[in-house]
Amino acid sequence: MRRKLSVETTRSLSSIDIPYSQEIFGYQTQACRKALCLAGSIFSLGILPLVFYWRPAWHVWAHCVPCSLQEADIVLLRTTDEFQTFSWKKVMWIYLSPLNSAFGLTPHHPLITNEDYIINRAIRKPDLKVRCIKVQKIRYVWDNLEGQFQKIGSLEDWLTSAKIHVKFGSGLTREEQEIRRLICGPNTIDVEITPIWKLLIKEVLNPFYIFQLFSVCLWFSEDYKEYAFAIILMSIISIALTIYDLRKQSVKLHHLVESHNSITVSVYGRKAGVQDLESHFLVPGDLLILTGNKVQMPCDAVLIDGSCVVDEGMLTGESIPVTKTPLPKTDSSVPWKKQSEADYKRHVLFCGTEVIQAKGACTGTARAVVLQTGFNTAKGDLVRSILYPKPMNFKLYRDAVRFLLCLVGTATIGMIYTLCVYVLSGEPPEEVVKKALDVITIAVPPALPAALTTGIIYAQRRLQKRGIFCISPQRINVCGQLNLICFDKTGTLTRDGLDLWGVVPSDRNSFQEVHSFASGKALPWGPLCAAMASCHSLVFLDGTIQGDPLDLKMFEATTWEMDSSGDDFHIKGVPAHAMVVKPRKTASQVPVEGIAILHQFPFSSALQRMTVIVQEMGGDQLVFMKGAPEKVASFCQPETVPTSFVGELQIYTMQGFRVIALAYKKLESDHHITALTREKVETDLIFLGFMILENRLKEETKPVLEELISAWIRTVMITGDNLQTAITVARKSGMVSENEKVILIEANEPSGSSSASISWKLVEEKQHIVYGNQDNYINIREEVPGNDREGRYHFALSGKSFQIICQHFSSLLPKILINGTIFARMSPGQKSSLVEEFQKLDYFVGMCGDGANDCGALKMAHVGISLSEQEASVASPFTSKTPNIECVPHLIKEGRAALVTSFCMFKYMALYSMIQYVGVLLLYWETNSLSNYQFLFQDLAITTLIGITMSLNGAYPKLVPFRPAGRLISPPLLLSVIVNILLSLVMHIVGFFLVQRQPWYSLEMHSVCTVKNESISELSISPTAPEKNESNNAFTSFENTTIWFLGTINCIMVALIFSKGKPFRQPTYKNYVFVLVLVIQLSVCLFILFADIPELYRRLDLLCTPVLWRVYVVIMLSSNFFASLVVEEAIIENRALWMVIKRCFGYQSKSQYRIWQRVLAKDPSWPPLNQTSYCDMPGCDRGVSYSNPVFESNEEQL
């Protein structure tokens, strides 16, 4: 399928490599508009360019006018997701005129007149130039024939296998190579190490740092230097840590790809022959010559001749050699990727993988045609997924922006109030402006980002101590909302290694006695032994046998040896350098010298089998097959399959064993190997028996799953293994408990006149066996007791059924997913699709895998946790060094603690700013304010220390069965903030007006201090004049002193109230540093309040008041503290009360999965057991859809 940018003024860009589609708009730059914008930039002192930097669309709208894409010199791109993010790109020109002199390239040259290929259609004639844009490292060229932008750097998908062999099988001419190099660009995955100055500028231009710069400038103008320096220091540390982290990631990514760009390869040219080239000169269509040496693939290429053994660890996370076969040359008109039922990837050598062995068809060399170059390749796609990650829409961050906007709105009201008060009182204009601007810096705390970041940093450090490493710290908060975890099975829930338990031979239509390898007896010679020795994809490299662990265990059990035939090897029909397996010299009663492996049809997850053609030395040619039992049996002669096949299979799969079936047949001697197709070989086989492998649960699996399930976190298994094995592992691990039922869902595609169907059958453990056409021969209970529907149930289905349901039963999909627990035989693409479908139901999805085939799902999930440290997991947000699932509950606990910490900090910073805001506005009424030292004490000595230490609470060790709130704008949180603001407002107003009504209050007094043994009437009165030189008259007043003490001590008390402990964080008293800080701060404040130290009061611009008034201040603060504590504990944190309120008001969660749960609970006909539905029946309407933004949850949980 061609992916393109279309010609009209607005269309969509949809590339399979871009995680979200984009709309594109054409614009033309106008000189007069540019001049006006330049003048605006100068007169606004650089503010206008800054706004354009933050809003790219405004930049384009200001400088350009709309036009068609054909005439555009600027294109504006807009993502079609919920974020609607804009970016703009300049249209560039590629000139082919240099080739005119070198090769005599003219508009009528035969090379560029063939318009079947995008490259030729992109060349504008007669001036020989190409328009292009670059989006996320991918180049798009303008197709002059179709009038649209199209991706370049890949061979066209419509090419047939015959066309590839004919057109590119002899290589490209030098002229074709040069044209393609110019248009497609170099074959490089170039990730530059971003210079520090670029990272610095990008970070500093963040809107909040600009606000901090404004605040600092204002404070310097008011001589508030100390806190300004403190904010500068905090900002420098924050920026430095961010830049260090970004730089580290940039260097890591650069090192990951740098080796790709400097590889020397052999390329065959149509006229030039074989020549060595630097890999960055490769173009799509080049013919690569693969020698026997190890080489890292610098591009994606399709093998057209010979065979290769490839290590795909870079892409799959498992360093297991994979055999690649050549693309057959067929006359079919079907595109080459779709011509076979097998996966086309078995012919493709992917970029970044290592070719560890390459063999020619006869004595020649292996050859491959370059498919894709640069960032179009598999490795390029992985790198781009890291460079341009999928945006994460977590409501906490959107609510944070709204929260800040509310503070800005509050600050605006305060500014208007300040302007009115100071203008009416006749203050100088510059003083009025300063006071008004001060209100903004008071209402919007500049230290908020630093305070929020500290909680994340502490959580990250705690995770690192547990061996869990994070490359996306913001995702830690998202971990706190996870309510569904998907697990891979093999290597994640179960142990990595498979142990060969035994074999069950079959002879004359019946199973024989089990041969156990634990006894130490060798397997007697026969077709079964020969199959185990030769039916594998193992390779002999550097004196060691390498390959799939399953194959390795199987081969080792035979005690045979492996070798490669030499040049002097002469047996009819056996090529030189063929793989040969031989019995050890110690082995007896083996009538053959060895077996040569002539040809392999490699294992494919789509086909669920592998087949080999072998030659017994001095004997017959044989075919051996191994694979999924149900698949192998379908290729065997029915009379050779034992009648107890289903029952025998059931016995072992029910116990959690992995079962592999084996089969064979003799080939006619007149067959030529290369002429045999897979379809001809895989017929009329003789069934040989079962091979039983044991895959044990990891010790940590069961307790971890029990912990998650007890916390009401859904657990789901997504595996590529057998469905019955998956069901057994689910039961053994506790994912499905003993009293819960498993319902097997089987869907079938339309065939002939029959529609697509879906059946529902209850899996029974101990009843008689009923043969059916089930994919995995699962025992089905025919009669269902009436009470089964009352209990809990789980759906189990295969990847094939999941695909059919998605296509033909889309309206049933959400109903199935609500109780879907076991998904087997799932391909990597299906794993990703399933995760996305769960997200559409508003689940917060975590994915835990070992890196093998899980990369797509790890990237798709809200939180991906890789248990592998392979390069493939570099895109996973979290990587655990401990290869078991114990990391999952730790991550959820830390996520919940970090999320609660974020809310605590938001609430505290809001209260702190509002306390200052209320106090300052009250003082403004008297044209008074707090002094710099008073602000400094509150900002630095109180709030900054609290911000740093409040976040130190660790996670609570137990997972509770509910999550913390995921939104700032939830009723309990809003009520908490509003109530505390009102309490503080009342306290400040009471203190402000009450102090003015005291008998000792006088505007002329500068201090009122009691002298020993003197009555209140004999107060020592110090007039203003004598202290004029020692104290700041602009601030000293009784109102100022009262407001400052009330505000400062209130900030300490609010911190204690808002610091949450159980059930998500450790109790506050265990945060020793925080408690110590609060005790010291409160002690210092009370000391200042009650100590009569004139010098201290003078420094802080305070007035001495009678002891009785100081007691009143303490009483007001205590009343406020207890009122706030009662509200917080009895109402805000009272979960039971909020549940009652919800029920009273009829509130129900708006999350899609909650809605479906309520619908299904009322449906007596669900689940439809022992029924078969068809897609043309009611309820199977394909038009029914459900869709919500992937990264959103509407649930407001307490």
TrEMBL record:
Recorded hits in Gene3D superfamilies, A to Z, give: Calcium-transporting ATPase, cytoplasmic domain N (3.40.1110.10), Calcium-transporting ATPase, cytoplasmic transduction domain A (2.70.150.10), Calcium-transporting ATPase, transmembrane domain (1.20.1110.10), HAD superfamily/HAD-like (3.40.50.1000)
Kindly name one Pfam family recorded for this protein: Cation_ATPase_N
Give the reaction(s) catalysed: ATP + H2O = ADP + phosphate + H(+)
Which major enzyme category is it?
translocase
Name the UniProt key words of this record, in alphabetical order: ATP-binding, Magnesium, Membrane, Metal-binding, Nucleotide-binding, Translocase, Transmembrane, Transmembrane helix
Keyword Cytoplasm listed? The answer is no
Where does the record place it?
Answer: Membrane
Q: Name one GO molecular function term.
A: metal ion binding
Q: What is its main location?
A: membrane
Q: Which residues form the signal peptide?
A: none
The Gene Ontology CC terms held by the record are: endoplasmic reticulum membrane; late endosome membrane
Q: Which InterPro entries does the annotation name?
A: ATPase_P-typ_cation-transptr_N (IPR004014), ATPase_P-typ_cyto_dom_N (IPR023299), ATPase_P-typ_P_site (IPR018303), ATPase_P-typ_TM_dom_sf (IPR023298), ATPase_P-typ_transduc_dom_A_sf (IPR008250), ATPase_P-type_domA (IPR059000), HAD-like_sf (IPR036412), HAD_sf (IPR023214)
Domain Cation-transporting P-type ATPase N-terminal per the UniProt entry, residue ranges: 156-224
Transmembrane spans: 227-246, 400-424, 436-459, 906-925, 931-952, 973-995, 1041-1059, 1071-1091, 1111-1132
Entry keyword ATP-binding: yes
- Please state which protein family the record places this protein in: Belongs to the cation transport ATPase (P-type) (TC 3.A.3) family. Type V subfamily.
Q: NCBIfam families under this entry? A: ATPase_P-type (TIGR01494), P-ATPase-V (TIGR01657)
Q: Which PANTHER family match?
A: CATION-TRANSPORTING ATPASE 13A4-RELATED, CATION-TRANSPORTING ATPASE-RELATED
Quote the protein name from its UniProt record: Cation-transporting ATPase
| Naturally occurring in which organism (per UniProt) | Orycteropus afer afer
